[in-house]
Amino acid sequence: MIRLTPASAHGLHGHVTVPGDKSISHRALMFGAIAKGQTVITNFLASDDVLHTMTVFRNLGVAIQQNENSVRIQGQGFDGLTPPKKPLDMGNSGTSTRLLMGLLSKQNFDMSIIGDESLSQRPMTRVMKPLTEMGAKIDLTANGTLPGVIQANATLRGITYDMPVASAQVKSAILLAGIQAEGETRVIEKIASRDHTERMLRQFGGQLESKNGVITLKKQQQLQGQHVDVPADISSAAFFLVAALITPNSELTINRVGINPTRDGILKILTRMGASIEVTPIDTQGEPLADLTVRTQTLHGIDITAADIPSAVDELPIIALAATQADGDTIISGAEELRVKETDRIATVISELSKLGANIEEKPDGMIIHGGQSLTADNDAVLLDSCGDHRIAMMNAIAALITTGDVILTGEDAMSVSYPGFLEDLSEVML
Ligand code: S3P
Asked: pLDDT confidence of 213, banded at 50, 70, 90?
């Protein structure tokens, strides 16, 4: 339990370097483990979620050296994994679970998969269904949740899969099975979800076609180890962007942030709300990067609809906080996926921000945020809860910057799922 600190009248100032991207760090470990030869990852995110992926591969016999944010993997190819000595523990990580169910579906030994309490309630049939159609043999509980088993010796064949929900995790699971399957695998997306798997497959020497929402690939030749330099995570940068916008007298620059167009929804949404974000592109060969500078600004309410959701799905809690400070109402629709994240993020955003006086109505697929509400903890100290969800924990810490009165946070440890050191980085810009 910690006491959260409000910002001073001077606001927030300076440069912030947020840690490496979570989605890209997971994928770099996965491709490095199944490629041949050495893969080096720099600016690797050593957070709880990603370290679970790393431990899974060590458990499968892959030699991985980690020195803070640098990782070296001696990849042995698709067939280089060895039977695990214990169950594969995915911790809190949906990305590890879903992507690895696809990637590991063609090994010649059984693997048990387990996760923590929150992960063990999240839906896994969304990946089991297409993978089973491809020939994978996966057992889950009767509710379609972990624990599960990936059975040995499946014969995989390509399928055409029209995605029922926009999900990069489901898409990636199919593609990672597809690169080992006989015949052609096609994934059809109505709205593009993050494309890090597709980009990284190409970087490791693989081939795929992506055109008009259809991704097509075949069984791949051996992939080759690479150097992956991970951009700073835009989902982590989002907390500082909103912090600077809503805290009076602030100006922050966030360095070298990944601005992949399938991830930059937060920039587009905040711009539509009236924010002026200076985007200074950085020349790179890999994922697009930019420095982002933002100052305190008056925002206005907007409609956020289904087409906006995939590229900003993890940022909706912090966008909701920004909306409490905007003029007018912000209506978020088509965001039912929030109900099956680390927590039901429609419910947890409302429960936490309401404790500070925010006025938010719940909808089945989103929320209506009535803006222009000062946040207060006037009488006794208010006790906020992360509810075990890293992004709710960080949203609460940003809310406390502009709250008058005492705010206490419980469950702050959850932040280390994606951003160990968040509170230290925040305190640096509060000096
Ligand atoms: C992720 C995809 C998203 C996102 C998650 C990371 C990924 O999940 O919420 O934090 O790395 O592929 P969905 O694919 O379930 O939308």
From this structure: very high
Scanning the structure block, which residue is given the tokens 């399957």? 181
Alpha carbons 145 and 126: distance in angstroms, whole number? 10
Is residue 391 within 6 Å of ligand 1 at its C-beta? no
Structure pTM? 0.98
Assign 24 to helix, strand or coil: helix
User: Which residues have a Cβ under 8 Å from the Cβ of 276 and sit 6 or more positions away?
Assistant: 294, 295, 297
Among the listed ranges 72-81, 236-245, 315-324, 371-380, which one has the minimum average pLDDT value? 371-380
Pocket-testing residue among 49, 95, 172, 190, ligand 1, by greatest number of atoms within 8 A of Cβ: 95
C-alpha–C-alpha distance, residues 391 and 43, integer Å = 21
> Is there an atom of ligand 1 within 6 Å of 169 CB?
yes
DSSP 165: S
State the average pLDDT over residues 284-298: 96
Distance 167 CA to ligand 1 centre (A): 6
pLDDT value, residue 379: 75
pLDDT tens for each residue of 342-354:
999 999 999 999 9
pLDDT digits (tens, 9 = 90+) for 128-145: 999 999 999 999 999 999
β-pair partners for 269: none
Burial of 153 (0-12, 13-18, 19+ CB in 10 A): exposed
Q: How many CB atoms lie within 10 A of CB 155?
A: 11
Closest Cα to atom 9, ligand 1: which residue?
314
96 ligand 1 Cβ < 6 A: no
- The residues annotated with a catalytic role in the active site are 314
Measured in angstroms, how far is the CA atom of residue 309 from the centroid of ligand 1? 12
Hey, is 22 helix, strand or coil? helix
Q: Ligand 1 centre from 42 Cα, in Å? A: 22
Please, what are the domains in the chain?
A: 2-20+231-428 (3.65.10.10), 22-229 (3.65.10.10)
Q: At 383, phi and psi to the nearest 5?
A: -100, 110
Residue 191 near residue 165 (C-beta atoms within 8 A) = no
What tokens were used for 281?
A: 């592109």
